[in-house]
Each structure stands twice: as structure tokens, then as C-alpha cells.
Design goal:
The protein is α+β, with helices and mostly antiparallel strands. The chain has a single domain (2-92), classed as 2-Layer Sandwich (Alpha-Beta Plaits), CATH 3.30.70. It has 3 helices and 4 strands; from the N terminus they run E-H-E-E-H-H-E. A hairpin with a 4-residue loop joins strand 2 (36-45) and strand 3 (50-57).
Amino acid sequence: MLYVVCTNIVEKEKVDAFTKAAKAHARKSMMVDKGCILFDVSKYNEEAKEVIFVEKWESKELLDVHAQRCKQEPIIKEMALNRVSVSLKVVEID
């Protein structure tokens, strides 16, 4: 089992647009990506302009398939245009 925590720093005036796109991405991931158990998007800290993704995946292999699919998604490119930086942590839990 894998947990992914992705912290996105977003320009203040773009937080709402980014969050809307991220939630659409999360819904699609839950519907089409095998092995996606949880995908939550939250505005963590309005002042710091942080939007956090918390994901739970059955395996690294299925997460890798998701990552490959995302490379082709226009919504991912839209989110990238609206963020200043991103950090990603993947934690494997037995």
C-alpha cells in the first residue's frame, strides 16, 4: 500500500481555479485508474497558498500507470501553469 502526499504552492489568485481542476483530476483518477483507493484534494493553508493531495494506492506499479496516463492529460498541464512549486512524498506501508 502506498500513500502519496503532494503539496502544491499556488499563486494566491489562482488557488480556486487550481483546486477546481485538481478535484476534477481526483474524481477522474478514482473512476479510471485501477488501484486508486483514495484521492483527496484540500486547501490546506490559504495564507501559504498550499493545496494538498492525499492519495492511497494499492501498489507502486498501479501508481506508475496513473502517472503515465497523467502525462497526456490537459488538466494536468493546466494545473502546472497555475502552481509555483510542487513537492511529492510517497510512503510505502506494509
